[in-house]
Amino acid sequence: MASSPVPPSTAHLALPFFDDAHRALARELLPWAAAQSVDERDDRAACRDWVKRLGQGGWLRYCVPASSGGALERLDSRALVLLRETLAFHSPLADFAFAMQGLGSGAITLAGSASQQSNYLGAVAGGDKIAAFALSEPDAGSDVGAMAMQAVSTSDGWRLTGEKTWISNGGIADFYCVFAKTDPNAGSRGITAFVVDANTAGLDTSAHIEVMAPHPLATLRFDGCTVPREAQLGELHGGFKLAMRTLDIFRASVAGAALGMARRALVEAVHHASHRRMFGQMLADFQLTQAKLGEMAALIDSAALLTYRAAWMRDDSEARGAPAAGDLTAAAAMAKMCATENASRVIDMALQMHGGLGVKVGTKVESLYRDIRSLRIYEGATEVQQLIIGKSVLRSQT
Ligand SMILES: Cc1cc2nc3c(=O)[nH]c(=O)nc-3n(C[C@H](O)[C@H](O)[C@H](O)COP(=O)(O)OP(=O)(O)OC[C@H]3O[C@@H](n4cnc5c(N)ncnc54)[C@H](O)[C@@H]3O)c2cc1C
């Protein structure tokens, strides 16, 4: 991981969306993140290393509630956003390792039994167990209800058969929160969640998938994989809702990660433009360059406001004990869509400003260009977010 030429700005911490505890958290994380040096050439080894460091640093305690060894009473969207933004600024892989501990254990936090919570959540917070969230299948990505994997009830438990793919932490996780059909004829109303330990007989996690940026991924094969009855997570046939509630918590934090990458690209662009001499002056002296930097800053700030708003809305609603409402989902969708799309544009502009260096393997903007791409696809592609927002607009105006 390459160190930043200058530390990130902390001006956004003054915004009224945050409490002093959030400001202190972000300020404490900054020097810690900047001081880490992880060899990321092997993404699996690096991810394990990051999870250990994040656990030892106490940062993974923000992925679980206080009742299970977490830092705060409940999962706090603003803390998650700030943590991911700061980590992604320094290393998108560090952000990924952090986020997956939360996403991979989120269903246990929301619906796990007391023994599931005590078996898994403390170990997730300490970085002693690596978590994964297994929802997608080869023929069921955006269309979750089309999943084919089945869980059949046996005399003493469940037998899982089928395939999951694009599973982050696949092959290095200690356990998987897996979603399977328990009523094949009921669409999304026939899905149940299970916790499956990685060493369970009948589970094969060896099919690694290589992608354009460091990101441990695998296809999981369940071949008559038998788990005890206590492995059921949450209500029978309640798996679709549980998966969506889990994703709802983390959607705004994907926007936080995109924001961190975009902020880093802007820092790199300013640094390069201020040091690159051409036609008798610096690249930064050209109005065309200043216009681009201005556009980049505005794209970042607009995404930041939507992201912090979505996180604040969710925390506020949780604090009031209000039932989850459609406006929260639409706000999180807007944040995810705008932050990931804007970050892609910002990073592309930063790369262009670097000229040939921008595409040279090893420069920060080159790796950011690859790192950002999958954020527009996973946890609901941009088109899925557009539909969520569009439906919400129609509901609110008719
Ligand atoms: C790096 C990475 C990590 C991932 N990690 C995980 C994980 O940990 N766990 C997990 O379960 N899954 C994971 N996924 C899977 C991810 O959630 C899916 O890739 C995503 O949901 C899209 O599904 P799909 O790839 O099958 O694309 P499809 O569903 O086939 O969609 C293809 C494209 O169609 C478009 N589209 C989608 N819906 C509509 C629509 N209604 N109208 C018009 N166009 C539409 C979008 O552009 C979309 O990209 C990961 C994926 C990636 C790339």
Question: What's a quick, concise take on this entry?
Answer:
The protein is an alpha+beta fold and 398 residues long. It is built from ten helices and ten strands. The strands form three sheets. The chain has a four-stranded mixed sheet with strand order 1-4-5-8. A four-stranded antiparallel sheet has the order 2-3-7-6, with no helix packed on it.
Explain this structure to me?
The mean pLDDT is 96. It contains ten helices and ten strands. It is globular, with a radius of gyration of 21 Å. It has 398 residues and is an alpha+beta fold. It has three domains: 11-129, Orthogonal Bundle (Butyryl-Coa Dehydrogenase, subunit A, domain 1); 132-237, Butyryl-CoA Dehydrogenase, subunit A, domain 2 (Beta Barrel); 240-396, Butyryl-CoA Dehydrogenase, subunit A, domain 3 (Up-down Bundle), CATH 1.20.140. A hairpin with an 8-residue loop joins strand 6 (203-208) and strand 7. The protein has helices at residues 20-35, 43-56, 77-90, 92-111, 114-126, 239-275, 287-320, 326-353, 364-371, 382-397; strands spanning 131-134, 150-153, 157-168, 175-181, 191-197, 203-208, 217-228, 232-233, 277-278, 281-282. The strands form three sheets. A four-stranded mixed β-sheet has the order 1-4-5-8. Flavin-adenine dinucleotide binds at residues 133-136, 141-142, 166-168, 211, 215, 217, 374, 377-379, 381, 383-384, 387.
Quickly name the level 1 CATH class of the largest domain. Mainly Alpha
Largest sheet, in brief, is: 4 strands, mixed
Q: How much β-strand is present in the residues?
A: 5-15%
pLDDT under 50 segments (min length 5)?
none
In total, the number of strands is 10
What small molecules does this complex bind?
flavin-adenine dinucleotide
Helix fraction bin: 40-55%
In the CATH hierarchy, what is the architecture of the largest domain at level 2? Up-down Bundle
